[in-house]
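thread: overnight batch results

M.L. [08:02]
morning all. the overnight job finished for the chain we discussed friday. pasting input first so we're all looking at the same thing
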Amino acid sequence: MIFSIKKILFVLLGFLVVTIISLVTIFLFTNKDDNDKNDSDLECENYQIEIICNEEINLFIDDEPVKLQYEINNPSNVYYTIEILVSNDNIEISNNIITPKKVGESLITINVNTKYKTISKEIKIIVLQSLTNANLKILNDKKEEVDKVFVGESYFLEVETNDEIKEDYFIYTSENIEDFMIIENTNTKITFSFCVVEYETTIFNFVYKNINSKISINCYEYIKDFNVVFSNSFNSNNLNLFLYNSIFETQANYDNYYSSADIQVNVSNKNLNDFTISIDNTEIAKLEENSIIANAKGSCKLKITANDGSNYCEEYDIFVDNVNVQNVAVSFDDKEIFVGDSVKINMTYSPIYAICDLYMVCDYGFNIEENTLTALDEGNFRVFIKDKLSNYETSFIITVKEKLSYYFEIQVNQSFLIENNATFVDNILTINNNKDYIIVPLSYICVVDNNPDINIDCVVNINCDIDMNVSYIAYSNAIIFEIEGNGCIDVKLMLIENSNIYCCFSIIVM
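M.L. [08:03]
and the structure it wrote out:
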């Protein structure tokens, strides 16, 4: 990765002159005037000798040896010798070369000795501990350390060292940094302020002597939009879910009714992928993993909230409704219902996956218990079917007849039974006379309650074996059968006036 220099900060640390441990080292130099003046000639002279040098020198323990810089100003050309003394072993000096040995302070004394006097000058040598560590932190406006930054926000860079900075240092930054400046500077800590202006990995590189410390931190733009996709049921910014009989879920889904919808939320690559999905009323709908599931009829809101500090939020309305019944078909087994009869009503509704609670109601004519009607009176009655969960209502008409009470009896002459070796038991006439042809006379009695004047003329229905030939003559309440062949004959007598009044019997010829 290539960085550009955004800011170069310089700190002046002073002159670097290195010293080394030597308790006392003496250098003697001789200086003799070219004109070779006699000592006796100088004794009475008022001469001046000056030592020119720095009074204090700072250097680091790991610096290379440096030369001791000084100058002897001797305008009178007086003969002198030089003596250099070191106060302790923090430094070492040899041939005017100073080598640092220990952290601390030392004194170098330069003595210029003449015949009559000594001129001295002291140099304070400070050996400093070199920096070995620089820790870089990014802080927010509350001076809390952060692990990410956002475009448009201001932050602080804190550089903390394990010792005082005495020389120039450099700060290199990435391109997305502006307004980079020092706001605080102590012996071991420097604080800079800066602003992030563009989406890019944010980098700071602190360079000082042999230290090269770097911090790299992810940069994001605040979320301004969510890309939200629902798997189904989403229209006009609303999510419409339904409750239905889950046994028939396939049919319901085929008709575009869904009880749940998957949700997928994405943000830009420049955004921090950190957000919360919530529903304000979990009694209506709940969130499980990435699915929104309907719980009860009603409405609630789905909220998607950014957790990047922008507090950006998007809301969607969720409506949950029942799939209501649209039609009810009624059927019952009995073709005719009479007063006092009970009949079970079968109700078939559509769609088959609808949520409903159907019940029947009738103002009069019936006693209703669940799906069973008991007829109380004769007539035509309208029965209503209603749904407790919706406004659905339909009706049907059922007819109740007065239940007939009558007495219908078949009579066979006793002499006929004896002559033909016959019996008549349980409406079965059995003839055993070994004849291929026989005449059978019968009569009947029919009495109808509450209708004594009813005409009892009957219709005669006959069903016989294929090998038999049967004919009859009917008049008044008598019937005469002519029978050829052997076998069984089933007879049904029905009143012409009311077919609901009838009697059945059988004739068996052996």
